[in-house]
Amino acid sequence: MRMRWREYRATLLVAALSAAFGALLLQGTVLLTALVAGDAIGEKESVQVALSLVSVVFFAIAVYVGGIVTANTVGTVIAGRTRDIALLRLVGADARRLRAGIARDGILVGLAGAAIGIVVGIALMEALVLIGRSSGDLPADIPAVVTPMLVAPLVAVTVVTWLSSWVGSRRILAVTPLQASAAAVEPDAETIHSAVGRRIAAIVLIVTGALLLGGGVVMGLVTMLGVLVGMVGGILSFSGIVLAAPIVMPRVLRLVGKAMGSSPTARLAAENAVRNPARSSRATIGLVIGVTLVTMFAVATSSYYDMILRASEQYPEDYAGADETLAVTIGVFSVLFGFSAVIAAVGMVNTLSLSVLQRQRELGLLRALGFTAGQVRRMVLAEAAQMSVASVLFGVVLGTVYGWCGAQALLGSMLGGGLVAPSLPWFVLGGAVVAAAILAAASSVAPARRATRVTPVAALAVD
Amino acid sequence: MTITTTEMGLAARVAGVSRRFGVGHGAVVALDDVSVGIRRGEFTAIMGPSGSGKSTLMHIMAGLDSSDGGNVWLGDTDITRLPDRELTLLRRRRIGFVFQSFNLVPTLDARSNILLPFDLDGRKPNVDESRWIESLVDTLGIAGRLTHRPHELSGGQQQRVAIARALATRPDLVFADEPTGNLDSRSGREVLTLLTEACSRFGQSIAMVTHDPIAASYADRILFLADGRIVDERPRSTPEEISALMLAMEATR
Questions:
Q1: Which residue of A51, A89, A252, A317 pairs with A177 in a disulfide if CB–CB is 3.0 to 4.6 A?
Q2: Distance of residue A255 Cα from the nearest chain B Cα, in angstroms
Q3: Is the predicted ipTM greater than 0.95, yes or no?
């Protein structure tokens, strides 16, 4: 089965963003290591180790987010093309072959996106170095930052795109040839039958992940390597939460929906947001991930700051110059977490517009029954708002937990570290909420416009 | 002085309406200078083979599609060049729809689907309207199903809910587009009987598009369309007569 180009656009963009991010991180690590090697704090090997660790962690996170976004994009596309797939199955196509075809496309799109991303990443770094040199911020004799290691993000992004296309396309196997001829009735609930297996897998992942995360925090009191254990735990438990999203997200959405009032547009929007657990979790999980990351890094940075502050009070001579390091670190961190949020945003925008695209018929019905164009637009907007509010709430809670664990695991072992209480920087959290709201509004503009362009007639065709 | 649509005893009327899809050689003329009225208080069937333009005619009369030429009235309102918002309000308040694939809003239960036209207007039905809706629900035999979602209802039950929704606002005209197309023959007969009763007991004007001679035999008046033109018109007829006429039309094409 060939998918249309527009259906690959988000995947390509995500792959390019992840790869560009990886390339920048890698070159940045090379550059920073070269720069700090001469400095006083540069001699503290731990800084260098931490730098590399942080790069790897951030790249892993970005690729992971990209993978989830890609899997969700593919899943949404497949859900919208059930009838095409059923038709192919009807004339004798093998479901496994169809799925393998999608995964193969994933390799190509992933490779193309990753290549574009790496080139862009190299160009950006080159530009930064040039600017740095001409302004005198960087010494003239810095080594070349382009390394053969850049193949690593290329391979990683391609493999992850392939894997996530494979995971996202599993629904193909559930499509029966009969669905090609069935009257166009909304297939109610994207099947409950995988629910039990999903639930068990989710619980196992969450429990294992939580244990590892706890282990990472404890290990972190002794060694920086605790962060690696913590990272594995974080990825496992978060995968579990993502897996459980179709069960968890509708509940969160329902709560938020109740708060939106009882006008017909709000009520319909609230119902739309939870009507199809698989679809609404696909749409929201991107933003949940984004907000979780933002909150996580905000909390981590802030906890880190608290630790350094406490440590420098105790050991002033060991932390001379720490303020500088701190400022750089916080700057770097904010860019880093912002980037994963951008990837997540691509996912959210894409899923919402695809889901509107797939509801042409229903939107047409509402128009035929007397929904004004304005009411349809408000409905789509309310839907996006509900989804973003629910995602932000959920993300803030998760992010606080992960951020604190991360900071503990990475820095608990440093001189004067130990356990600190999680610290919530309110201005950053406020910023996350505002950004999410703006994102929801912005992401609903295009789908809302498309929704209002639906003519009643087009949507009422029997097919 | 011109005679209004109402004075003609009509619920809706088109005059010299044409509609063409596509351009150049691929263009298809769906309606070719059609003038016809739907009588008030009557059950009218619009018949014709696939591609005869019957659905296009219904869409234009209902303000769902625009014509390339001619005029369209709903009651005394000339809706030919009405802006979208006005058309929307008109559909909400003065037209009812029954579709082949039921087209209930899947996220709303049966009661909310029936009340949707009122909801859209941001109001609750008044006492009189509530009584009317209650009697509709009883007549249609869906009183026990009001809290069910569409996917929990059979096809026949969904279509009854759709009929209740279409009749709830006591519209000027109800449009039914192949209302029995997705139903088994028994449910189909029940739906047709209900539509006939809505017309005879409550004086509801109904226009039904169909290509099924049995469905058309329930109507008071039958309009025949072929190649975008009205080619014949009959009073109430038996399915056999209608079939014979359709076959004859096919033969002369």
A1: A89
A2: 17
A3: no
